Structure prediction request, 580 residues.
Amino acid sequence: MESRPSFPRYPLLVLLCALSGTRSPGASAGRSCADTRQVYAEKGYSTGTAPLTQISGEHLRLCPLDYTCCSSQMEETLALQSERDFLKAVEENSQFLLTTFTLRHRRFDEFFRELIDLSEKSMNQMFTKTYGRLFTQNAQVFQELFVDLRRYYSGGSVSLSEVLSDFWSGLVERVFSLVNPQYQFSEEYLECVSKHAEQLQPFGEVPRRLRVQVSRAFIAARALSQGLATGRDIVNKAIKLTADSECVRGLMRQWYCPLCRGMPSLRPCHSLCLNVMKGCLANQGDLDTEWNNFIDALYQVSEKLEGPFNMELAADSISVKVSEAIMHMQENSVSISTKVFQGCGSPRPAPGRPKRSPKESGGNRRPFRTYTPEEKPTTAAGTNLDRLVTELKERLRPMRGFWVSLPHTICNDEKMASDVTNEDRCWNGQTRGRYLPDVTGDGLVNQINNPEVEVDIARPDVRTRQLIMELRVVTNKLRHAQSGQDMDFMDSEEGSGSGGGDQGERYNDDWPGYGPHSPPYNNPPRNPAADPAKPRVRERNGSKLNRNHGRDRSAASQPAYCLIPLLSMPFMATVAPMWR
Prediction:
């Protein structure tokens, strides 16, 4: 049986295979881009340049060179959109910081200022009620105190130690005149009194206690207020960033290249997102160490304000302690006046008034008194310090590590990246599938091997370095405030910054026989009001006291001569007990 030739079938089979092979690319290219066009239009862009079906991707610059639903114009538009999305994500996730620093600063600032206002108002009301015209006629010295306290809190170049020293110097002059109305005191004589106030201690221990309490509280309050304002400003600067071309490339490849491939619902793999974010936020990651130190310092200062440096108690105590000080001087006016007359000389009697002894001069005077508990100043309206501090501490805790956790915060958003449990069904930068590269570390240096964003680690961002320095400066101020020290005045203050502590504290004892520390002295007392016709033995050499003691430091270098050894022994035997 003759076999039938079968060769005619083979060319047909070969032809069918060839035809099917040539249609495969065409079929892929003809895939619909309807979903891509819809999403693109929903973003507000015209679909005029959007292909109806997939086309060759040879024109693409950022996405994989495969069949695509994006024209060159669409790719460029979506790249800009990815940058806007990134900046918006950074801003939104930083809003917690901005809101906290802005509102907390406003509330603390209003509260501290109101405390000062209430303290002054309370003093004016109570002293007017207690002392009447005596207070109103001498109110300027109290007004100047609160003016200077406000200036200090507001950031003025004012030393708290000098403010309080000037206040007590002015007050001792006024009170000394009031408890000795039978005498006429020249300005020079009163300056002699104020110069030796530290040795006389006419107000007892009140000035030292008030200085310690007020200084610590005001230093901490100012440091906290300035720290919150600085934190707000640093966050504002840190989030106002721009994405460079390499960052934009990474952003586009992870967020919108799936759209160009016709898979708009496909989210980038979580690890891919992290690498892109860490590359784009490399410089912000370098803020982490100093940022954490700053947050810790804010937290610790707020705890100090809640405890030993309580601003509320310090503001309340000003009028109370001033009242105690005046009462102490009035109760001890006889001994104080005697010492002053011995040191500064006998004053002239006031015209038209008989000379009376210090005891007589104070006998009929209305007694000074302290406040009763119900008369003490009330808390600033609307809140109290404990509540403010508690709220602040609750908000500070989650701020630690913010900048290194920001990439994770963004990528944990389901709109930005796929969930970590969906590793096989996410966009890996090329197609749907698992993302294999490791996630890089935090900060600029660790981006040297970032597979998604090329970062030049040899060129740190200048603005970020400036922010790091700002953080260091404000943190240092906060840390010193925890010890009651004001960095702005540490070079000019001895021992404890702006008088915030009493460790190593020493008085400037330059008047013989007074004060807790009494080394040999060189400055003898003087009688500026003595009658030249009746010279006193103590002024035999005519030495003069420094008229600006406590106000002009340059005066401390002026020479002084000790006259005590020149005094006769009988006179010394009589006078010596008065100087103890």
